Amino acid sequence: MLQNPVTVESLIIFAVVLCIHTIVWDKLSWCAVALALQAYYVQHKWDRLQKSGGAVFQYRQAVSTGVLPASMVIPLLGIVIKEHCGSVGNVNMARFGILLAAIGMALALFVSLIALGITRPIPKNTCVLAGIIGSGIVYTLKHLLTVSEVIEVLEILLIFVYLSLIILWLLPRSFTPGEALLVNGGISIVINQLIKRSLNVGDSRMDPVFHFLLVVLVGVFLMGIFFTVFFYFMDSETWISSLFFHMMTAVLGLGIIMPWLYRLMKTNPIMWLFGFLFQTRTRIILLCFWTLLAVAACCVVLYQHFRNCSGTKKNTTSTVVRKYFHFIVVATYVPGLIYDHHLLYVAAVICFAVFVFLEYVRHFKIKPMGHLLSKTLSVFIDERDSGPLILTHIYLLLGMSLPVWLFPEPCTHKGSLPGIGGLVPYAGVLAVGIGDTVASIFGSTLGEFKWPGTRKTFEGTATSVFAQIICVAVILIFDHNVVLNAGYGWILGSITLVSLLEAYTDQIDNFILPLYLYCLFMV
Prior knowledge:
Layout lengths: L4 H20 L2 H26 L14 H21 L3 H28 L5 H21 L2 H24 L6 H23 L8 H25 L6 H27 L3 H9 L3 H29 L9 H21 L1 H24 L5 H9 L13 H14 L21 H19 L12 H21 L9 H17 L4 H14 L1
Helix pairs in contact: 1-2, 1-3, 1-18, 2-3, 2-4, 2-5, 3-4, 3-7, 3-19, 4-5, 4-6, 6-7, 7-8, 8-9, 8-13, 11-12, 12-13, 12-15, 12-16, 13-14, 13-15, 15-16, 15-19, 16-17, 16-18, 16-19, 17-18, 18-19
C-alpha cells in the first residue's frame, strides 16, 4: 500500500485533517473528517476515469486527479480562521470563517457529485457513501448558517459552475481536476467578495489594501477572458491586434478598474498608491532593494536565454537554475515580512498583476515583446506547464503571497499572532521558498534513496525539514513580533508533514503546500 504515492499522499492529508480536528473538535471539524473520507473515494474513482480517457474536459496528466488535497484546503482555512478569530472575540471574522468552510465543503461536494455522475459504470457503493456523508454535512451546515449565508454559498456555487466551464474550455491541459477546483473556487470567492463590497460601499471598516487586492485580481482575470474571446475571432500576432491589445488594456484599466477602486476607496487610487508606497524611508529602501532583486532575476533569465541560443546547450534549464528564483523570492519576502508587511501585501498584488499581464503578452504573442517572452520563458517550462499558459512562476508568487493576503489582521494584537501563529505569514517562505527549493536541489544532486513510487529522495526531504527549522530560528532572531514560548514539537511536526506532502504529491506544490502549512500554524 505504501508503494503507491497517491495512497501515501492521502494518508498525509488525513493526518493534517486529524491534527486540526484534535485541536478544534467541533461540528465543522467532524464535517471536515467526513469530507476527507468522501473525497478519497471519489478521487479513486476519478483517477480510474481519467486513465480510461472518459473525462469531459482535457485535464493535465498527473499521477492523481488531486481531488482529496484540493477539497480540504478551503474548508480547513475556514475552520482555522473561525477558531482563532472566535477565540479573540471577533464575531464577524469568525462568521466569515464558518462561511468559508461551508463554501469549501459545498464546492467539494459539487465536484464529487459531477465526478460520480460521469463515471461509467456508476460506482454504487461510492455513491451511497458520498450521499450519506454529503447529507450529513448539508444537515450540519443548515444549522450553522443563516439564510443570507446560505444564499451566498449558492451564489458562489453558481459562479463556480460558469467559471469552470469557461476556464477548462479556454485552458485545456492546464489543471488537474483538483487544481481546477482550487483555482476556480478561489476566483469565485474573490468575485463574490468584490460584489459584496461594491454593493456595501458605505462600510468603511475594510482596509483599502483589501479593496486593492480584490479589484486587481478580478480585473486581470476579466481582462484575460475578454482578450481570449476577442482573439478567438482575430489573429493576435499582427501589429493592428497588438495596438488594439494595448489600447484596450489602457481603456479597461483607466475606464473600469480605476473607477471601481475609486468607488471602494473614496479616494484617487493612483495618488493613494504613490502615497502608500513612498510613505516612509523604510518603504523606499525596501522598494530599492526589491528593484535590484528584480533586475537580478531578469539577468538570470536573459543569461539562460542567450546561453541556450548559443547552441551549446539544449533548450532546457536545470532544476538548480529554476530554484534561483525561489531564493530571490525568499530574499524579497523575508525583509518585507519583518519590516513592513503592509507594503509587501500591496507589492505582491502589483507583482501578480504584472506577471499575469506579461503572460497575456506572451500567450497572445503581442508585439513587440510577445515572441521574445515566448523564447525566453520556454527554457524554464517544466512538465506541469502542459497547457497553453506558463503558470509555474505565477503559482510560485501565489504560494508566497497567499499566507500574507489571508493573514487575519482584524483578529490580531498589534498586527501579529501569539505563539506559533506568528509564523503564519512565513508559511509560503518556509514551505516553498526554503523547503521545496532545498529538497529539489539536494534531492537532484545528492539524493540516492528514493521514496517508494516517486522521484523524490529521502535526503531531499530530510534536508528540507532541517533547512526550514534553521529558517524558523533565523526568523525568531530577526523578527521580534514572532515569540515562541512553546509549541516546538508542533512546528517540527507541521513542517515534516508538509515536507512529506511535497515528496508525494503530483499537484502544483508551489500553490498547495503553503496553504496546508498556513492551516497547521494558524490552529
